[in-house]
């Protein structure tokens, strides 16, 4: 298993956002993480990527115990996750947004211009891959919602991750862009990149994923291939609030 989440819990005050949650992601798969709003999916992502530290339980990635490691360490081990384009980043160009994540601070100063040029080339290739290379010199804040999603998607690939965590990549995106995102995820998956995707679009989940993990109330209630999950009463119950 590439990723193992083992009896992980995280509470905020009295709210058990993630409660004794266990699941695993096999290398080379596209795994969907689904569940009703408030199920704990985003919190699970934050725990995996190190933005939050679990109260208990362990998380392993590629055989390493990554529990409690800082986000940049976890990223360096090969876990990529999208970050939102904040107001600050909105004033940077699309290309600068691509480079800022990997070449921050001392690293950038130490390694200097040659690395930066190489990174910019990689950034342009990735922007081209997601279809927004023509926007490279525009300020990120001028992008449409869908274009922003594509930028977030491209930027997570800059660190050449082995596992990519995507939180609602299709949310609010028009059907044409959605098709493009799905196609790019498939293409990358064929090169060996593993995906863990939180998504509400059930057609997309059922079409794209090899495995589906269903969360409700912070727990994993079931896990299996899409065909089985689709006909699992517990999943319907969870969405209808019956569990
Ligand atoms: N930073 C936080 N502080 C307090 N409560 C939080 C925080 N983050 C999430 N929660 C709560 O934890 C639960 C799970 O949230 P979340 O992980 O965002 O669910 P999902 O992504 O599945 O919709 C919700 O009840 C939410 O209100
Ligand atoms: Mg969420």
Report on the structure:
- This protein is α/β, with parallel strands linked by helices.
- The chain is built from ten helices and ten strands.
- The protein has two domains: 162 residues, P-loop containing nucleotide triphosphate hydrolases (Rossmann fold, 3-Layer(aba) Sandwich); 57 residues, no CATH class.
- It has a six-stranded mixed beta sheet, sandwiched between helices.
- β4 and β5 form a beta hairpin.
- α4 runs parallel beside α6 and α5 packs across α6.
- The two termini are 29 Å apart.
- The model has no long low-confidence stretch (mean pLDDT 91).
- The site of adenosine-5'-diphosphate has 11 residues, from β2 and α1.
Present as ligands are: adenosine-5'-diphosphate, magnesium ion
Proportion in helices: 40-55%
The largest sheet is: 6 strands, mixed
Q: CATH H level of the largest domain: which superfamily?
A: P-loop containing nucleotide triphosphate hydrolases
The CATH class of the largest domain is identified as Alpha Beta
Number of discrete domains: 2
Radius of gyration: 18 Å
- Strand line-up in the sheet with most strands: 6-7-8-3-9-10
State the CATH topology of the largest domain: Rossmann fold
Query: In terms of structural class, how would the helical and strand content be classed?
Result: alpha/beta
Overall mean confidence score, pLDDT: 91
Count of helical stretches: 10
Number of strands: 10
What's the architecture of the largest domain in CATH terms? 3-Layer(aba) Sandwich
Secondary-structure element order, N to C: EEEHEEHEHHHHEHEHEEHH
Strand content: 15-25%
């Amino acid at each position: 298993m590439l990723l193992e989440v083992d009896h992980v819990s995280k509470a905020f005050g009295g709210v058990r956002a993630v409660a004794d949650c266990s699941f695993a992601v096999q290398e080379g798969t596209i795994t969907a993480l689904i569940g009703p709003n408030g199920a704990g999916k985003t919190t699970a992502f934050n725990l995996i990527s190190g933005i939050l530290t679990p109260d208990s339980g362990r998380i392993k990635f590629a055989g390493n115990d990554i529990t409690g490691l800082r986000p940049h360490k976890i990223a360096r081990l090969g876990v990529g996750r999208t970050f939102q384009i904040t107001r600050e980043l909105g004033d940077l160009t699309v290309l600068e947004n691509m480079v800022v994540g990997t070449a921050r601070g001392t690293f950038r100063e130490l390694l200097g211009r040659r690395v930066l040029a190489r990174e910019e080339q990689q950034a342009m290739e990735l922007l081209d891959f997601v279809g927004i290379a023509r926007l490279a010199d525009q300020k990120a804040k001028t992008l449409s919602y869908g274009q922003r999603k594509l930028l977030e998607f491209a930027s997570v690939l800059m660190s050449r991750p082995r596992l990519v965590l995507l939180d609602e990549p299709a949310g609010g995106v028009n059907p044409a862009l959605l098709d493009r995102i799905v196609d790019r995820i498939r293409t990358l998956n064929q090169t060996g990149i593993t995906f863990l995707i939180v998504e509400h679009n059930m057609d997309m989940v059922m079409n794209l994923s090899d495995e589906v993990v269903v969360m409700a109330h912070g727990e994993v209630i079931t896990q299996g291939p899409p065909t089985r999950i689709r006909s699992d009463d517990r999943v319907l119950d969870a969405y209808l609030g019956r569990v």
